[in-house]
Design brief:
By secondary structure, this protein is of the alpha/beta class. It contains ten helices and nine strands. α6 (242-253) links the parallel β6 (230-240) and β7 (259-263). The longest helix is centred in the first third of the chain and has 21 residues, at 53-73.
């Protein structure tokens, strides 16, 4: 890819482990570009302000999508093979206090054009057995098989996120991202990216793993549209860390997802690219993570810099509008790498688009105290006091989400 881009060297990423290293990660707010000069999401590339929702949908939004496609996440080729879903097992089990019906799902990708590359999307769906109708579902990106159902715990704070969702009358699902796209550079020759490219290397604007993982979530939503247990118009997406990045990309590109819970996503997710704090552009452009991104992204760690990017993370959040999105982060002390303030500033920067579309922004431009929930608008933010985890924010997210997502109500017996 470096040869294709005519790049001979890349600047090293920030070192988050050695504070005395020459390239040590910056955690000094004064040096973090605290007031970045961000691209205006409501200004056309040729100049002039976006004044109406029609202009946003028909003209400005496509401009932003094109920049993200070309420079950051890559394009999904038109030739992606078809997916056929199979329910491989169905069973009943108790999860906490709720009996659920769990289905093991496999999305078989047509690999007739390249038989040597077999791709299956592994997923699971659990819905309340006693639901009076189709239920909302929260989908989580995960590394491996879903956890087994657990017995009731003595206090609500001990509930898993799945049990908290079930208490709302919703269902939950997991999707194993690496089942259909590997999380390494060698994986680009396999998985859905390698299959679509017939085993050949990527072009500079081809999709990376984040966009491929998002594609898989969209295919799972295709299945949900055929399953009578699921209210496919009330499906949310959640992920932590790299999967927080993937969840935000999913929300931005597929408008069918109703809500997003974006946890500790950092660089490449909700954090502003232009911020020099913790993880930075160069970390994602180097060998450990370049496969997440389009090849063209590597140029911003070579001849170009973050300030040269035509878009930034606030515009990725803006692509979710007018749908609700919840940005989650851990404490500055426990998880500085993801740059909680950089994610907050991106949420602020998405506000003008939400307002244009008749929705509410965060309601402030000042970073709130830790544990303060900003959930009165349609863009939400909370920094909890824990580390690199979504768990402390699940109850707050569900409070926020309950304004939008509603479980079916049983019809009273005459």
């Amino acid at each position: 890819m470096m040869e294709l881009l005519h790049i001979t060297t890349l600047r090293p990423g920030a070192d988050g482990n050695r504070p005395n290293a020459p390239n040590a990660a910056n955690y000094d707010e004064a040096k973090a570009n605290p007031y970045p000069n961000l691209p205006d999401p409501l200004r056309f590339k040729k100049g002039g302000k976006v004044k109406t929702a029609k202009d946003w949908w028909s003209k400005r939004r496509p401009e932003i999508v094109e920049d993200f496609d070309r420079e950051i996440y890559g394009r999904v080729p038109a030739s992606v093979p078809k997916v056929t879903w199979e329910v491989t097992a169905t069973g009943r089990e108790m999860n906490g206090l709720t009996m659920v019906i769990t289905k093991k799902l496999v999305g078989h990708v047509d690999h007739s054009a390249m038989p040597s590359i077999k791709v299956d999307i592994q997923a699971s769906l659990s819905t309340p057995a006693s639901a009076p109708g189709p239920v909302p579902v929260m989908v989580e990106f995960t590394f491996g098989p879903p956890p087994r159902a657990l017995p009731p715990l003595p206090r609500p704070t001990g509930q898993t996120w799945q049990q908290q969702v079930l208490a709302k009358g919703w269902g939950y699902a997991t999707i194993i991202s690496t089942s259909y796209q590997g999380d390494n550079g060698a994986g680009l020759m396999g998985g859905i990216i390698g299959l679509t490219n017939l085993g050949k290397p990527r072009r500079p604007d081809d999709w990376g793993a984040l966009r491929a993982w998002a594609w898989g979530a969209s295919r799972l939503l295709d299945y949900f549209e055929t399953d009578k247990a699921v209210d496919a118009k009330q499906v949310g997406i959640e992920g932590l860390s790299r999967y927080g990045k993937a969840a935000l990309v999913t929300m931005a590109y597929d408008q069918r997802f109703a809500i997003g819970f974006i946890a500790s996503s950092g660089e490449g997710g909700a954090k502003l690219f232009r911020r020099n704090y913790g993880e930075i552009v160069e970390n994602l452009a180097n060998p450990a993570a370049y496969h997440w991104m389009a090849g063209n992204y590597m140029r911003y760690a070579g001849p170009l810099h973050a300030s040269d990017l035509p878009v930034d993370a606030h515009e990725l959040i803006a692509l979710c509008a007018p749908r609700p999105v919840f940005i989650s982060a851990g404490s500055f002390q426990s998880d500085p790498w993801v740059d909680a303030k950089g994610m907050f500033l991106a949420a602020v920067g998405a506000g003008p688009v939400y307002r244009l579309l008749g929705k509410k922004d965060l309601g402030t431009t000042e970073m709130p105290p830790i544990e303060t929930a900003l959930i009165d608008g349609d863009v939400a933010f909370r920094q909890h006091s824990g580390g690199h985890t979504a768990a402390p924010n699940w109850p707050v997210f569900l409070e926020f989400a309950s304004r939008y997502i509603k479980a079916p109500v049983a019809t009273p017996t005459p």
